[in-house]
Amino acid sequence: MRALASEGVFHEEDGRRFALTPIGDCLRSDAEEPVGAWAAFVGRPYYWQAWGDLLHSIRTGESAFAHRHGIDPWGYRARNPEEAAIFDRAMADLARRASRSTLDAYDFGRHRTIVDVGGGRGELLVNLLKAHPAMQGVLFDLPHVVEAAGGELDAAGVGERCRTVAGSFFDEVPQGADAYVLRAVLHDWDDPEAVAILETCRRAMAADASLLVIERDIGPPNARPDAKFSDLNMLVAPGGRERSIAEYGALFVTAGFRLAESPAAGFGLHVIVGVPMPDGTR
Ligand SMILES: C[S@@+](CC[C@H](N)C(=O)[O-])C[C@H]1O[C@@H](n2cnc3c(N)ncnc32)[C@H](O)[C@@H]1O
Questions:
Q1: Is 21 in the same domain as 134?
Q2: What distance in angstroms lies between residue 47's CA and the mean position of ligand 1's atoms?
Q3: Could you give phi then psi for residue 12, rounded to 5 degrees?
Q4: What is the pLDDT of residues 22-60, one digit of tens each?
Q5: Residues 128, 266: one domain?
Q6: pLDDT for the residue 18
Q7: From the CA of 193, how far away is ligand 1's center (Å)?
Q8: By Cβ atoms counted within 10 A, which residue in 5, 79, 112, 240 is the most buried?
Q9: How many distinct structural domains can be found in the chain?
Q10: Does residue 179 form part of some domain?
Q11: Distance from the CA of 118 to the center of ligand 1, in angstroms?
């Protein structure tokens, strides 16, 4: 605790008593915007074991996680429900923390139906549905993730306006919605897989539907340590990468979208809006 007090997580008082600082307070599960689940996740042995093989990623450009565990993180968690639950709660912490600024950045209310592709336990979708009472949602993710999510949607009071669909975004996603959200999904993947995910969405979308990619901008050289270290984290674990807005724009074009706008959404995130290009114009 003394070490953490020296980093501002606690404040050491007389007599070796410790008080919470605002940073330490975020670790409480009843904090307004808790990040304790994220802290619990990054300390999991299987995760830092992958970081122990960082050199493999640096030498090869490939996932140290797959090298260490012989499987990608999604497959590993599908086989380890306890780790899946810890990871999904960590993602929900991050999504909750950024949801207000995300909703302020872009008028989601213009869309009647939204599919959250790789939406985890539905934290963002819950916030969208609460903010827009006429909106209908679809939570799409891997089977073990959506199975655990249904109860949370009901508990949040949006279960009647939100259905869950299990599947893989490399195969197909639900058709015919007005908007397709991909939050913190594309950065998990290298360019060929990211394009494949976007192409799956493109096939499901009508010509007037919108693609809403919510991701970090990697930022300029010598700045944005959060994005640069997240870039390393993406390389080490899922084998992905952070990107510039222009790099997302290039992926969009390859997959059949035009980048329309990219309003800043706080925490270094942007809502990167794609519009389907007519078939044959790529
Ligand atoms: C980094 S998490 C982001 C979750 C959520 N969008 C958020 O912002 O909190 C990536 C999500 O992609 C999902 N995912 C990974 N592979 C998938 C696949 N093949 N098909 C569908 N979802 C997948 C994971 O289960 C996970 O929920």
A1: no
A2: 17
A3: -80, 125
A4: 999 999 989 988 999 999 999 999 999 999 999 999 999
A5: yes
A6: 97
A7: 13
A8: 240
A9: 2
A10: yes
A11: 4
Are the C-beta atoms of 258 and 277 separated by less than 8 Å? Answer: yes
Tell me, yes or no, whether 23 and 117 share the same domain: no
Three-state SS at 277: coil
pLDDT in tens, 244-258: 999 999 999 999 999
* 187 is a catalytic site residue: yes
Let me know whether 100 and 173 are in one domain: yes
Same domain membership, residue 150 and residue 22: no
Are 211 and 130 within one domain?
A: yes
Residue whose Cα lies nearest atom 16 of ligand 1: it is 74
The reported pLDDT for the residue numbered 279 is 77
133 lies in the same domain as 249? yes
Apex CA 181: angle with CA 176 and CA 183, to 5°?
A: 155
The answer to whether 207 and 278 have CB atoms below 8 angstroms apart is: yes
DSSP tag of 278: P
Catalytic one among 56, 132, 144, 187? 187
165-218 pLDDT, tens per residue? 999 999 999 999 999 999 999 999 999 999 999 999 999 999 999 999 999 999
d(CA 151, CA 147): 8
